Amino acid sequence: MCMPTKKSARSVQQGKGRPRAFDRSEALHSALTVFWQQGYEPASVAELCKAMQINPPSLYASFGNKASLFLEALHHYEHTYWDEPAKRFLAEPDIYSAVENFFNEAAKILLSPETPCGCMVVLAAVNISETEKEIIESVRELRLATKKMFADRLRQAITEGQIPADTDVPALAGALNTLLEGLSIQARDGLFQSELKAFASYAVRMLPPRITIKHE
Fold first, then answer.
1. What whole-number distance in Å separates Cα of residue 122 and Cα of residue 137?
2. C-alpha distances in angstroms, 172 versus 90, 166, 198?
3. 8 Å CB contact between 52 and 22
4. Which of 18, 73, 79, 172 could form an S-S bond across to 14 if both were Cys, CB 3.0 to 4.6 Å?
């Protein structure tokens, strides 16, 4: 079972009436853990404040409200865990290695002992009230951004002659994105790293056969 190991935000001693000082990054990570484990709706302000070691007035003063805190924690999550793997995916010159390496990294991230299991974008943002339009749209944009990342890299592979020109890029990008989101659900079910990596290995098999250059 994956459990968070990062400490909650550090508080410092303060004089009477002075606001509590805290490390914003650590506070966000603590809030992230609560949202990740419980989801947006069930996570209460009281639980968030306890994890972040601040009081409600400080939360509202620093982050606006619960929705704003969630959105900031969501982007903190993306930056902390996925920015570097995405850069490596886009920089890898071979599309087959790029997909294989990215999904192997994803399997490690989704079952990292430093975090709750699964992807926050997939798991923490489910069952959100329709009234939370900003959150719903932000989560949708993040999912679409990942799908676009796959599509952009596939089009580059076509341009470079690595995969056929008639490859259905939108469908293949959608399939890769669906596999990535599915791995998150599987991670939450308590799979071993080896099992998740075995599932991830199918990502490369979704790609069309490598184009071979015939020499006359």
1. 13
2. 16, 12, 19
3. yes
4. 18
Contact 40, 135 (CB under 8 A): yes
What are the Cα distances from residue 56, in Å, to 48, 64, 66, 79, 120? 9, 10, 10, 26, 24
Q: What is the DSSP letter of 117?
A: S
Structure tokens at 65: 């409200």
30-35 own/partner pairs: CB under 8 Å, 24+ apart: 30/6, 31/69, 31/70, 31/73, 32/73, 32/74, 32/76, 32/77, 32/120, 33/4, 33/6, 33/115, 33/116, 35/70, 35/73, 35/74, 35/120, 35/124
| Amino acid identity at 124 | A
pLDDT means per 10 residues in the chain (216 residues)? 40 40 82 86 92 92 92 88 94 96 91 71 72 86 93 97 96 95 82 84 92 60
Write the DSSP assignment of 157-205 as a string of letters: HHHTTSS-TT--HHHHHHHHHHHHHHHHHHHHTT--HHHHHHHHTHHHH
Amino acid present at 60:
Y
